[in-house]
Task: inverse folding
């Protein structure tokens, strides 16, 4: 049973931006052996937002916090040199901003943060500073700690 949503968490798939959604879904299912997807929403390079599952269901974004989190990911986060960097296209950024704004209205008490902002997480995900980025575009964004 899902509890109150406390976090809206941003992720990168940690793949090249050219990775296919199908490949990512297969990885979760076959390699990770997950029954549920890693995120509720995933943003493709062209800015299209795919809903992977209902918000009332649990996604596997951050171990220990999934019951209280909505997870949003974008395809990318890795460049051709294998470095973890922000590879978001302009369309992905716009779609992400719109999605985060609408989720923040739906869950006014939830905190928006990046996967790497959780204590003890040793990942680059989502490969950019979520709170700084939101603040740049929406000063006084209230869902940022
Ligand atoms: Zn992540």
Result:
């Amino acid at each position: 049973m899902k509890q109150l949503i406390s976090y809206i968490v941003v992720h990168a798939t940690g793949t090249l931006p050219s990775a296919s959604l199908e490949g990512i879904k297969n990885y979760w299912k076959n390699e990770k052996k997950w029954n549920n997807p890693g995120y509720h929403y995933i943003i493709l390079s062209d800015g299209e937002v795919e809903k992977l599952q209902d918000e009332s269901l649990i996604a596997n974004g951050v171990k220990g916090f999934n019951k209280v989190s909505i997870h949003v990911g974008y395809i990318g986060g890795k460049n051709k040199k294998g470095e973890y960097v922000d590879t978001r296209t302009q369309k992905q950024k716009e779609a992400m901003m719109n999605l985060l704004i609408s989720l923040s209205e739906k869950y006014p008490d939830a905190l928006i943060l990046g996967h790497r902002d959780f204590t003890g997480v040793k990942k680059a995900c989502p490969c950019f500073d979520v709170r700084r980025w939101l603040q740049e575009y929406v000063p006084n964004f209230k869902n940022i700690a």
Observations:
- Residues 90-106 form the longest helix (17 residues).
- The pocket of zinc ion is lined by residues 11, 61, 115, 125 (CB under 6 Å).
- Residues 7-137 form a domain with the Lysozyme-like fold (CATH 3.40.80.10).
